[in-house]
Amino acid sequence: MDWLKKLFGLGTAEKESKVNERTSNEDSDHAKDEREPYIPFSHTSRMKPEDIEWTPSDDPINHNCNLD
Amino acid sequence: MGTGGELISLFDAVYSSIVDRLRQESDWLGFLVTDSSNDFKYERLNYKYDLRVRNEKVYKVGINLFLNNEVATEWHNHRFPFLIYPIALSGSLESPVYKMDWEDKASGEAGTTMVISGECYSIQRCADVFHRVMSLCDHASINIADITEPPVRPDRLTSQKLSSPRTAEILEILRTAIKTPHSCPPDPAVRIASAAALSGAICLKSR
Fold first, then answer.
1. Which residue of A has its CA nearest to B126?
2. pTM
3. Range of the structural domain that residue A28 is part of
């Protein structure tokens, strides 16, 4: 994960420890970390302000996305 | 289908814009949402505008308000990939807002995590990753759903329209909560380690 830490300038051991304390599968986490680096960004990594726009929704009512 | 980090990156980019839009009460539609399986209710505001990225991806922004919820939800997945930014309405800076059990049915991995005020998370593989939550305090959330692709299953919740005054009240609750020390704008940094900690099922980010 060093390349990710360098990329974003974060990911201290202290922070990692704090996060891991909140999960119940700590033992398996490390193994997963080594075999499958997590790539956080794809299309948004090159996002520019002009790439984002707000447009009127064609269906503002029927997208109850959270908790469903 | 991409990673949950996409949603978190997008949220970082549009957070200020969303906060600005909380002032425009006429741009929000309020609903009382009911899960008939356990009579779990919450209030939701849907933003009348969708967020489009390069005309390739479409996202919907909403606000949820959970008051007096001492019940836990049933295990469920979500219809769309989504991000949640929780905001405690009381308590300290890093108040836990709910306890979340999760299971990735594709990998068989599972765990439990505490969701903290001001720390957003996303679930991209919404068909595979199930969770259930136990609310620990009154809280709200800003959420973004990726509606580019069709939902992975039909809607199972029922909605009843809220009055305009109640919609305005909820927006005021959000505006107030965002100004308090209970939450703060997201930092552009993404806590990468947590993604691995959650085995890729859930992507988590904090200040």
1. A68
2. 0.75
3. 2-51
